[in-house]
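Changelog note: in this version the structure field was regenerated for every chain. One regenerated record is shown below for reference.
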Amino acid sequence: MPLATLTAPARHELLVKKSRFLAQAEPVASVAEALQFLEAVREPDATHNCWAYRIGTIYRSSDDGEPAGTAGRPILAAIDGQHCDRVMVVVARWFGGIKLGAGGLVRAYNGAASECLRLASRLPLVAMTCATIVCGFDHVASVHQWLAKVGANKLGEAYSGTGMDIAIELPHENLARLKTGLRDATRGQASCMEDPE
């Protein structure tokens, strides 16, 4: 299943043995955005505000006073289990007077976060690649036609005496198709090189 992020904030509430769990999720593009969301939705009267985020290979979680490993990691496991990325989830808990035990806490935090993400509206994440096209002036029209065909965004242009360099971003899966299309349309006169990481 491809990774996805959310199209909008999402909420889900769960009651477990009189304890109330409120999961809130938000699409985020950076750690700073994740922490801003935490501050925005932190429930001051809640017993705990536990959270986790994943942004590519960057992830972090917090148990916020719950026993170690019973809240933050289960929320992160819910993010991964729902195949989400670029997402922050905060689960507030109001203690209802009945202890849930470590296993009960893990199930409750994971369950609230999982259901929140499962019900949320999603947007598939597409791996993007940056590249540079070098072409003569007589092939600019063909290049622009191919950019539209492969869903490429033009990031910039630079002119030389013989033509232009066009910086683009496109879905990685379309790069080979673009290279072949440009080669055929310009009889090998235009080149497309993936930018180094």
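Spot check on this record: Residues 128-194 form a domain with the Alpha-Beta Plaits fold (CATH 3.30.70.240). The helical segments are 31-41, 72-81, 101-119, 140-149, 175-185.
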